[in-house]
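queue> pop job 88
queue> type: inverse folding (structure -> sequence)
queue> payload:
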């Protein structure tokens, strides 16, 4: 039976530790950390994600503002709004929730956010710092994957890791972080993607498999070697009339097939998802530390 990499309980512990740090800041007379989440339009999933971030902030004593802009917001209007928050000294972290409406360019918008407040670690300056091994912030999901493995004693150093997915948000930064020298790194990393010829073969040779794709049960039992560590990042909605919301969440791994073979497995839900929010909170704390008056 695999060890369950329980991101929910680990994230609660991380949040409790951060709550203590927030209180310590307060006791030292420092301003409370503050996060602003900007949303353009009414994408339902974005609203749900922002609510989860708001709940985490409120629980920790971190200030939070949901800055809502209408769907038809122009590039210049958004630039103006971002500039306003960049210049607001009471705000330490700013994220612009993706996806943006199609008339706005995500990469251009990521460059508008002040690098000191870029708690998602999307700004090219922060991506560059990560690349050279001197991160200002750690990308939330990628860092969440690494912390989850380390917390359960699975150190990637020297292991063969196969990451499936090469997105700028998950796969690519995770590959950088797992290959560089140091804590959570030193792995031999292969990045697979939609053009990979034989995904099953790549996975069978891996000590660690991390799918971040968005395809339900892509990774099958016979793709996984005995004793591998499997960290499922994918989040997919399956229609389920028995659920209040009419769907249930599943990952990119065929859990019931893979779990008996794996040494450890992160479930969906309850694995990487909660870790992502916990790392975001630690980035907001970090941002508050950078912006001392
Ligand atoms: P994306 O669509 O930007 O990237 C998907 C990647 O998968 C691409 O690089 C593509 O090449 C690859 N891919 C697509 N089909 C493939 C196939 N059949 N075989 C191999 N590779 C294939 O997605 P993303 O933003 O990186 O998110 C990926 C998944 O992770 C989604 O399910 C998303 O919901 C989830 N996610 C979870 C968290 C979390 O906190 N747990 C955070 C971000 C994303």
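queue> result:
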């Amino acid at each position: 039976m695999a060890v369950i990499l329980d991101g929910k309980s680990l994230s609660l512990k991380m949040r409790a530790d951060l709550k203590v740090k927030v209180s310590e800041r307060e006791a030292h007379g420092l301003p409370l950390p503050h996060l602003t989440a900007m949303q353009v339009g009414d994408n339902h999933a974005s609203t749900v994600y922002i609510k989860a971030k708001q709940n985490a902030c409120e629980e920790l004593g971190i200030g939070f503002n949901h800055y809502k802009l209408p769907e038809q917001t122009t590039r210049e209007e958004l630039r103006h709004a971002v500039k306003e928050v960049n210049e607001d000294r009471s705000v330490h972290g700013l994220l612009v929730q993706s996806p943006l409406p199609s008339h706005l360019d995500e990469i251009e918008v990521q460059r508008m956010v002040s690098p000191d407040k870029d708690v998602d670690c999307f700004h090219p300056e922060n991506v560059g710092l990560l690349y050279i091994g001197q991160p200002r912030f750690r990308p939330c999901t990628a860092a969440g994957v690494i912390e989850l493995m380390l917390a359960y004693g699975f150190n990637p150093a020297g292991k063969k890791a196969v990451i499936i997915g090469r997105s700028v948000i998950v796969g690519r930064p995770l590959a950088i972080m797992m290959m560089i020298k140091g804590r959570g790194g030193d792995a031999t990393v292969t990045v697979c993607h939609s053009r990979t010829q034989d995904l099953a073969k790549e996975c069978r040779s891996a000590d660690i498999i991390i799918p971040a794709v968005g395809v339900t049960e892509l990774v099958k039992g016979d793709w996984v070697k005995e004793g591998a560590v499997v960290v499922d990042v994918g989040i997919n909605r399956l229609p389920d009339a028995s659920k209040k919301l009419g769907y249930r969440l599943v990952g990119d791994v065929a859990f019931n097939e893979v779990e008996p073979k794996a040494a450890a497995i992160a479930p969906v839900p309850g694995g990487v998802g909660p870790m992502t929010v916990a790392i975001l909170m630690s980035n907001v704390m970090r941002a508050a530390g950078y912006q001392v008056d």
